[in-house]
Amino acid sequence: MHFYGFECENRGDGRVPWLAVQLEAAEAAAAAVCRFHRWSERSVIGHREWQPGKVDPLGFTMDSMRARIAERLAPPRTYRVRPGDSLSSIAAELLGSLSRWPEIARLNGLADADVLRVGQVLKIPQR
């Protein structure tokens, strides 16, 4: 099995929370490395899992990070377009934010986001 990790900046004392954008970036980067090498999320490890005496990361668990990475590595879900749907309404419903519609467009190779057909099956990105 292959393992890897990368350095992230934080005070490291567990009192200063990790920003959501930091966790999202770590998740995305780790998933990209796993996808490239065809590894699973189990290849992602933290300092304290590998090096005796290390206490980091503090403020989140590697199990929770690996769960996030596993979700990102999962195959895309699908959605069948219904009357009145738009990419932004689908993004709001399934991804929690209408601003994520460009991800759906990219994943499906849609040149014109305004052209959806009822019954069309779209791939939906994870989380």
UniProtKB/TrEMBL annotation:
The terms under GO molecular function for this entry are: N-acetylmuramoyl-L-alanine amidase activity
Q: Which InterPro entries match?
A: Amidase/PGRP_sf, Amidase_domain, LysM, LysM_dom_sf
Q: Which residues belong to any copy of the LysM domain?
A: 77-124
Q: Which domain of life is it from?
A: Bacteria
Under the heading PROSITE patterns, the entry gives: LYSM (PS51782)
Q: Which Pfam families match?
A: Amidase_2, LysM
Q: What name has this protein been given in UniProt? A: Peptidoglycan-binding protein
What is the originating organism of this protein?
A: Streptomyces chrestomyceticus JCM 4735
